[in-house]
Amino acid sequence: MSGGREMFSSEKYLSHDHIPEDPSVHKININIKTVGQLFNSFDPSPFLEKDLDDDAFEYIVSSVQEHPLKKKQKMILHFPKNQQKKVSEVEVRRAIHHFFEYKKILAERNIKLKLKEGELSFFVGSGFLIACLLAGEYILTFGENTLTYILFEGLLIGGWVAMWKPISDVLYEWWPIYQEKRVYNKIANMDIDFKYT
């Protein structure tokens, strides 16, 4: 994006009618010169289906993550006055909401895939662990000495190491994706205001 992160600001703004704004609402202020700065200029999709610019996406997501998701938040897009007649507020609002709704759907799919992957790896890992335990018990039938003990312990460790992947998938790896989904869902339903200065 031209100008990179310089187009963003966390500065607090007052409405043009000078009515004090609700302090309980966290405001995500984005200063831009044209609508084109918000979206990926290389994306050939129709306007309502365009991807957000990477810098805009990262700024919006990180701003939302700075506060509890239960806290009400609002996005405010600040344009120069000469853009007021050039900006279709309805289309911009719908395009941003559509983008984050799509990101939420992708996150939901990734969670399902991760859990299915964990389920499959659990059966594979369990089978390998059982095979290692049986092989270890068989080795001990040749007598308990240093060599058989080392082989038994090696098989036991190898079997449990194989279980780390399913345990990681089921207990840990889906959680960050779930958190991302919650953030995307919040932004997809967030109020978006426009100001021209």
Task: Tell me about this structure.
This protein has 197 residues and is mainly alpha-helical. It has two domains: 4-106 and 187-196, no CATH class; 107-180. Helices cover 54% and strands 10% of the residues. The chain contains four helices and three strands, in the order βαβαααβ. The chain has helices at 54-65, 89-140, 146-162, 164-188, and strands at 26-31, 73-79, 191-196. It has a three-stranded parallel beta sheet with strand order 1-2-3, covered by helices on one side. Helix 2 packs antiparallel against helix 4 (164-188). The longest helix has 52 residues, at 89-140. It is rod-shaped, with a radius of gyration of 26 Å. The chain starts with 25 loop residues before the first strand and ends with a strand. Mean pLDDT is 81; it is low at 1-6 and 9-20.
Global outline: rod-shaped
Q: How many strand segments?
A: 3
Helix and strand pattern? EHEHHHE
Report the portion of residues in β strands. Answer: 5-15%
Terminal CA distance: 22 Å
Mean pLDDT: 81
Order of strands across the main sheet: 1-2-3
Structural class by helix and strand composition: mainly alpha
Instruction: Kindly give the count of domains.
Output: 2
Q: Report the uncertain regions.
A: 1-6, 9-20
